[in-house]
Amino acid sequence: MDGQEATHSQVTLHVNGERHALDLDHRTTLLDALRERLGLTGAKKGCDHGQCGACTVLVDGRRLNSCLLLAVAQDGAQVTTVEGLAGEDGRLHPLQEAFVARDALQCGFCTPGQLCSAVGMLAELAAEGAEATREAVAERLSGNLCRCGAYPRIVDAVRDVIT
């Protein structure tokens, strides 16, 4: 076995509905594969420690911090990034529209992660039959930090989509 085989693997990722076959170093995070190999730069590298949520994407419908996931461990997974939230017709996802309408962003750095997290959170609430109170939405989005402090408008935008 040569050194290349020991450190790389073929990985198939289904990103935003498209199949991608990649040869990846075992140390490559999903975030780096998305940004550097696929050119999808919506998910941001904020803290690179899973503490800020700027890199949040949906993996098989679950919201996860892509900076903490090894890409090889996601072989065969369905990944949705902020670039994949809009419909095939180009129409924005209802949450994206609500963020714009509520001015729920300032610098925009955290927005892609906030949006992916909110999409996942809405699916969680629906699956649990839980009520989407202001407090519940704020708590469930607490893993996504916003340096600008747009939290009240983010929560309002999410609740607009629910009600």
Binned, the helix content reads: 25-40%
Shape annotation: globular
Distance between the termini: 58 Å
Largest sheet: 5 strands, mixed
Into which percentage range does the β-strand content fall? 15-25%
> What's the β-strand tally?
5
Q: Total helix count?
A: 6
Q: Give the low-pLDDT segments.
A: none
Number of domains: 2
In N-to-C order, the SSE pattern is: HEEHEEEHHHH
CATH topology call of the largest domain: Ubiquitin-like (UB roll)
What spatial order of strands do you see in the largest sheet? 2-1-5-3-4
User: Which structural category fits the helices and strands?
Assistant: alpha+beta
CATH architectural group of the largest domain = Roll
The whole-angstrom Rg is: 16 Å
Q: Which CATH class of the largest domain is shown?
A: Alpha Beta
Q: What is the typical, i.e. mean, pLDDT?
A: 95
CATH homologous superfamily heading of the largest domain = Beta-grasp domain
How would you summarize what this structure contains?
This protein is of the alpha+beta class and 163 residues long.
General description of the model:
It comes from Streptomyces katrae. This is (2Fe-2S)-binding protein. Keywords: Iron, Metal-binding, Oxidoreductase. InterPro entries: 2Fe-2S-bd, 2Fe-2S-bd_dom_sf, 2Fe-2S_ferredoxin-like_sf, 2Fe-2S_ferredoxin-type, 2Fe2S_fd_BS, Aldehyde_Oxdr_Iron-Sulfur, Beta-grasp_dom_sf. Residues 9-85 form the 2Fe-2S ferredoxin-type domain. The protein has 163 residues and is of the alpha+beta class. The chain folds into two domains: 3-84, Beta-grasp domain (Ubiquitin-like (UB roll), Roll); 94-162, Orthogonal Bundle (DNA polymerase, domain 1). It has six helices and five strands, in the order αββαβββαααα. It has helices at residues 3-7, 30-37, 94-101, 111-128, 134-140, 151-162; strands at residues 8-15, 18-25, 56-59, 62-65, 78-80. Strands 2-1-5-3-4 form a five-stranded mixed sheet, with helices on both faces. α3 crosses α6 (151-162). The model has no long low-confidence stretch (mean pLDDT 95).
